[in-house]
């Protein structure tokens, strides 16, 4: 208990002496700022700044609990471990695809966003196919999106099969160019 009180006292002193930068520059705070920047459709330059300063392009978030608690922030700062909740939520790429936010999609892909993350409750390629957004489907396939990933939520259907169901020749052609079915 004494150790905990010492740590808390040290943190309070740090904050009072201007140590707030410790939280402002933590990866988790940058990730939360990136979530808000995408939601608010901020400029590509603003997204680029956050990503180049350490925001994680593969961060998953939960809309019901976007902001970590103060205790989570302190634990994150002390341990150096992000408070992201893998396996729970939506990836930033899925969020950007849902919004058809081209600036965010491009910035995230440029910084290594994985279009195939298993942790996401939404799959970017599915979002693109459902919205019949040809340019987005092409960009995601070009960046390695798996056209044959089965989704339990859709009776193990793949994005390729969903594209075929649309009966849109241009959409189907993108999947034929991407790779043969598995």
TrEMBL record:
An individual GO BP term: protein K6-linked ubiquitination
Placement of ANK repeats on the sequence: 88-120, 120-152
InterPro entries associated with the record: Ankyrin_rpt, Ankyrin_rpt-contain_sf
SUPFAM superfamilies hit by this protein: Ankyrin repeat
Gene3D superfamilies xref list: Ankyrin repeat-containing domain
MF annotations from Gene Ontology: ubiquitin-protein transferase activity
Record keywords, A-Z: ANK repeat, Repeat
Official protein name in the record: Ankyrin repeat protein
């Amino acid at each position: 208990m004494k150790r905990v009180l010492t740590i808390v006292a040290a943190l309070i002193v740090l904050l009072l002496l201007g140590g707030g930068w410790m939280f402002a520059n933590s990866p988790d705070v940058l990730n939360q700022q990136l979530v808000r920047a995408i939601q608010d459709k901020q400029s590509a330059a603003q997204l680029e700044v956050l990503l180049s300063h350490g925001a994680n392009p593969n961060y998953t978030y939960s809309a019901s609990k976007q902001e970590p608690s103060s205790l989570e922030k302190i634990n994150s700062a002390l341990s150096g471990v992000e408070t992201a909740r893998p396996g729970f939520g939506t990836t930033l790429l899925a969020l950007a695809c849902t919004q058809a936010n081209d600036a965010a999609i491009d910035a995230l892909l440029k910084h290594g966003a994985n279009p195939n993350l298993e942790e996401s409750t939404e799959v970017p390629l599915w979002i693109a196919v459902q919205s019949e957004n040809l340019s987005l489907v092409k960009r995601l396939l070009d960046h390695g999106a798996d056209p044959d990933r089965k989704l339990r939520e859709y009776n193990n259907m793949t994005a390729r099969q969903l594209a075929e169901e649309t009966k849109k020749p241009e959409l189907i052609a993108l999947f034929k160019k991407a790779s043969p079915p598995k």
